[in-house]
Design brief:
Rossmann fold; single chain; 19 helices; about 25% strand; 25 strands; about 35% helix; 4 domains
């Protein structure tokens, strides 16, 4: 261990209920360096930082393997308070400020400065008054360190998000003995000019001797300010690079590159996809979905293709389908098979023969207390009048038709259950996902949208679901839009893949494009030779 090493995490491992999320990961941070921590969603970055901060979720799930050293001494970080005592601070992506407090009050919260009062002389320190001038002086000193000229008595409420980010940083460096700061996607909510100011502030802090761990997906920012880069993939340490000896393309390749597990390889037959016919067209499409905002998307999906939508978490990919289905406020123009789609009208998409399998299968997709058969057929009965029979002037659901279709779906999708009458809530996650897919198929859609279809299910179930999507597309000509965080799965079944970054279209990729190009697109970096901004999408 080198003398100037502030933090050393050695051979860190972590399991959640038998699922390995970190395996033998080591990380060394030197005094005054800016160290990037890169990786796709699920690479293990958040878990590693949770261990560093002693978060409760780590210690209530069996702890972790490995050792942590601060300034060369072995430490046990069993709580966030212990992390702060060791000089570790964190600037969160979601602001931890109190809007009704002033800038000074937010910076000094928990470290207030008091002065004696008349009553405290008789009844003790608890009755001392806050020394606001002294607190404001501390706040001013730290605001100046990060280059923010806001008045220390201003209220936080109503401030631009960029200002709030700097107040967060000033609060962290106000803590005594701060040695290491973790920046968790700090530029995600900032404008370009605000991001440049933030990176300038990070460099000033590093020059003062504070070490910084910089978690980001924007590779241009990494190359601009970082000294060393650590890349995680699938919970394992892939590489450590000196910024001077690498480049954006290599980093992108290291982040994304992996071979798809042979056990979930999907055979995709050749199909004739017409460039002339359009299944879905979006123009200046916007979605106001918390955490997945879409900001002016132009996109064309061809009839008969499997079209993938990928990107990192929080970049807008989840918002696309939710906006089309009017599950989140949407604007702009949309047309399906040449007919205008009235955005904002719940149920409109269903009547246009669009079916949707939501990423939130328990919250949106299923009626957990109802039977499998009821879940599969209820929407189709309500929307398209399927599974109904007439007895004189009366119409009622046909138990025979419901059970016949439910049993067929149970067989075709291999839904592991005791029968169609079993409550959906009693099924495993993978089998619940299959019920959601069966529910969508019951609508007999022309366009099927599936969001995170393999999330939380085992490899065998994943292959089953992907095989079914390919079969529906090949044998019935169904147009499918698949939204997924699993890039390898998108590349295994899709004809084209749109990468969404910051709520906009970064590029339309081919499945056999290089790992590096996919990584560049996901980081928001221009893809040389790629279909930038969808110019060749139609």
């Amino acid at each position: 261990m080198e003398a100037d090493t502030i933090l050393s995490m050695r051979n860190i491992g972590k399991e959640y209920y038998g699922n390995v999320v970190l395996k033998d990961v080591s990380l060394d941070i030197k005094k005054g360096e800016i160290h990037a921590l890169l990786g796709e969603n699920g690479a293990g970055k958040s878990t590693l930082m949770n261990i560093l901060f002693g978060m409760e979720v780590i210690h209530t799930t069996g702890g972790y393997a490995g050792e942590i050293f601060m300034d060369g001494k072995k430490v046990v970080v069993d709580s966030p308070r212990k992390a702060m005592e060791l000089g570790i601070g964190m600037v969160h992506q979601e602001f931890m400020l109190i809007p009704g407090f002033t800038v000074t009050e937010n910076i000094k919260i928990g470290r207030e400065i008091s002065k004696p009062s008349f009553f405290s002389r008789f009844f003790g320190k608890k009755l001392e008054n806050l020394d606001m001038p002294a607190m404001a002086a501390d706040a001013r000193k730290n605001l100046d360190r990060v280059g923010l000229s806001v008045d220390e008595y201003d209220m936080v409420a109503g401030m631009p998000v960029g200002y709030m980010q700097f107040v967060e940083i000033a609060r962290e460096i106000d803590k005594s003995g701060i040695k290491l700061l973790v920046f968790d996607e700090p530029t995600a909510v900032l404008t370009e000019s605000e991001a440049l100011r933030l990176m300038d502030a990070m460099q000033r802090l590093a020059q003062s001797g504070i070490a910084i761990i910089f978690i980001t997906h924007r590779l241009d920012e990494v190359m601009a300010v970082c000294d060393t880069i650590t890349i995680l993939r699938d919970g394992e340490l892939v590489a450590v690079r000196d910024k001077r000896k690498t480049n954006v393309r290599e980093l992108a390749q290291l982040m994304v590159g992996r071979s798809l597990d042979s056990s979930i390889q999907v055979e995709k037959p050749a199909r004739d996809i017409s460039d002339e016919q359009t299944a879905l067209q979006l123009r200046n499409f916007t979605v106001a979905m918390d955490g997945e905002e879409v900001r002016g998307l132009d996109l064309t999906v061809r009839k008969g293709e499997i079209f993938g939508i990928g990107g990192l978490a929080g970049q807008g990919k989840i918002g696309v389908c939710n906006g089309i289905m009017s599950l989140a406020p949407a604007g702009g123009e949309a047309a399906v098979f040449g007919e205008p789609l009235q955005l904002g009208k719940l149920g409109e998409a269903l009547h246009k023969k669009i079916a949707f399998v939501s990423e939130d299968r328990r919250g949106v997709g299923l009626l957990l207390d109802e039977s499998i058969a009821h879940n599969i057929t209820f929407s189709a009965s309500q929307v398209v009048g399927r599974f109904l029979s007439k007895i004189g002037p009366f119409t009622q659901r046909s138990k025979a038709m419901v059970n016949e279709f439910a049993n067929r779906m149970i067989g075709e999708l291999d839904i592991r259950c005791t029968g169609p009458r079993q409550p959906a809530g009693a099924l495993s996650g993978g089998n619940q996902q299959k019920v959601c897919l069966a529910k969508a198929l019951a609508l007999d859609p022309k366009l099927l949208m599936v969001s995170e279809p393999t999330r939380g299910i085992d490899i065998g179930a994943k292959k089953n679901v992907l095989d079914m999507l390919v079969k529906l597309n090949a044998e019935e000509g169904m147009t499918i839009i698949m939204v997924s965080s699993e890039l390898a799965e998108l590349r295994s079944v899709c004809d084209r893949i749109a990468i969404i970054t910051d709520g906009r279209l970064a590029a339309i990729m081919k499945p056999d494009d290089s790992d590096a190009d996919f990584g560049l697109a996901m980081s928001g970096t221009f893809v040389e030779g790629g279909n930038r901004n969808g110019q060749q999408e139609a």
